[in-house]
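Narrative of activities, Objective 1.

The group set out to show that a structural description can be obtained from nothing but a protein's sequence at a throughput compatible with the screening campaign. Below is one input-output pair from the validation batch, recorded exactly as produced.
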Amino acid sequence: MEALLCSEIPIRSSINDLSSSSSSYTWPIIMASSSSFPTLMDKDNIPRFDWDLSLSAVVSSPSTGSDAIGAIEFDPSGEILATGGIARKIRSYRLSSLLESSSRDDHLSCICTPAKLSSLKWRPDLAGRVIGSGDYDGVVTEYDVERGVPVFERDEHGGRRIWSVDYTLYNGSVVGASGSDDGTVQMWDPRNERLEETVRPPGGGAPAAICSVEFDPFGGPSLAVGCADRNAYVYDIRRLVDPVVVLDGHTKTVTYARFMDQHTIVTGSTDGSLKLWDIANGGRVVRTCRGHVNSRNFVGMSVWRQGGLVVSGSENGEVFVYDKRWGEPVWVRGFSQSDRLGSDRRFVSSVCWRQVDEDWCTLVAGGSDGVLEIFSGQRS
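Output recorded for this entry:
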């Protein structure tokens, strides 16, 4: 069972195809039959993109070796951007400087870490100062970004790779969570070192890897968990006994689980689909989105809650944006060409929306070659 499980888990540092196209375009609407063609009566059901989104900056990788980006995170203010990956470095940037700089590679700080990184998350109570990381050695480490030093460390996953970390402010306290190859979600209070809770999703056989954890960003008591057993789970953190909702519908590993709102969760899977779930009604599938290519890698998935948009990376080297109202992508952009890796070895490995604006949107995508591309837009 263990060997089978490992073959199902996507590899962040795997290399796949990259499209040679770098232009953006609207995804064509493909109808199943002539009777499905839209009419004037249902024109509102035609997928459309309500934003003018264009490339604003390209940040080259300063590394000469492999530098696949596994995590991109904005701090709560939306001003500071941090990246991490297999180069064992946390780089932080000021967004305004990236958009204004001609060199496009200036960073505020660069922290060297002892292991490859799979996940980053800013501490919500120490905005822009402390960032938590999950690494391939199974350790959660928090770093003071200004001083570049570790300030907190947890090693509760038995050396098994951590795929995801998250924090929440609940009832005035900070709670952290990490999900790992060991099949557990560990929850803790960063103010002390004692273990608070261990969550093991249900299922027979060997424990399935936990690929994604996210607390309800609206302050509720829910925790979303994406798992290699092909399911996602929603827990009430006040009573971590059994999941309150099981999201059963993907056919392969669930790599991401993100809240669109308090009642809707978006999941991504290596079955090549995204799904929107109504968790207020027992976990009903609201919509399935397809278009991007994803069969074995972590390609990144991020939700922009104010705009109702979901972005996914792809193994063909393109960025796909979906509107929660439709199943087809509304915007697709090919990554720029790079000399660092051949076109058959590059893919989009991480994506992130900036959350703070309503009338402007900012999207950041990272590649398996360590290159960042920043897209900015406003309502059309």
